[in-house]
Amino acid sequence: MRCCALLLLLCTWACPILIQARQFLFLAAPNVLQMDTEETIVIQAHEFQKEVDLNITVRDFPNKKKVLFSGVTKLTGPNYLNMFTIKIPSADIKSEFEGEKQYVVVTAESKTAQSLSIEKAIMVSRSRGYIYIQTDKSIYTPAQTVLYRLFTTDENMDPHSKPVLVELQNPSGVTVIQNLWQVEDGLIAKSIDIPELASFGEWKIVASYQNDPDNKFVSEFEVKEYVLPSFEVKLTSEKSYFYVGDREFTVDITARYVHNEEVQGYAFVTFSIRRQSEKYNLQNSLQRVEIDDGKGSATLTMEQVIDLFESNTNLVGASISVNANVFSSGGDMVQAERSGIQIVESPYRIQITQTPHYFKPGMPFDFSVRYILI
Questions:
Q1: Locate the Macroglobulin domain: which residues (predicted)?
Q2: Residue 271 to residues 335, 340, 361, Cα–Cα distance (Å)
Q3: For residue 1, is it within any domain?
Q4: Its pTM surpasses 0.70
Q5: C-beta separation of 327 from 333 below 8 A
Q6: Which of 79, 105, 300, 309 has its CA at a distance of 20 to 30 angstroms from the CA of residue 86?
């Protein structure tokens, strides 16, 4: 009897025990899924010996009734692993409360074995991106036009094209004007007219993406009553032209109060060039000028011009403009501008338009030459 028991025990040790391993799916995804953005998830099947067809669905949370995205993928050996791209439209997800966290349920389910599936609740966030607003000035008066530009970028600071809602709000926060613009390649330039009967104070340009109206970007400017300046600014120059052979062009600034007293302060001066219908701001020409006893001077060098245009010969026929914002020691500011300073190859112009076009033999030939200094 003991021999039979010992023999049975030895047979049990010698024969391998066959155990069927449990098949299961593994799902990896970002902690937060951005709406309206392609996101990648990873799915892997474990303990499989043949390819697996999976249905991928994204549903609302917690009801799981609304399908936000669906697709199909196939897992094949040897790793039975695949990456899959999903995209959740923000228009299909509504938030009842501002700032409320929102989730979706991502499910991977075998098409053949209904019991083989995996699901995961993941937080979602709207693909916000950024909007940068730039206005041409910081202070306006009623009935003036505000020139502004919008720069739109995604989370990676790359330009992108999306509809943008732009609002003009008065100091009370009331929207006066509202426009919807389609931004192309991350940049758009527009204008807004301030009402003639506008309240004074801090106004705002408020921009938001059409699909994300709760995420707002703001640029502020001031609307003030027009007041006659307390002092006058004049911009003059020794020459009325800029010769391409000259190294620099100097503009003299004179600032006097209405009672003829000289202004003490400083000025910020910039130059620009207009060629044909295009205007080019010379950013490297920005300079601070001290105003002492009502006088100061700003200089534009040919090197600064060539930095932008590479050659001075391309500038013949163009004109220079100079803009000066003069600040007095008392805090007042007056803006002055001078334009139409021609860039020339020669400061002189010769005309013979009054000369006859034909010579008559035997007759005196009178001609006249006009010598004009530009």
A1: 131-223, 225-304
A2: 14, 12, 56
A3: no
A4: no
A5: yes
A6: 79
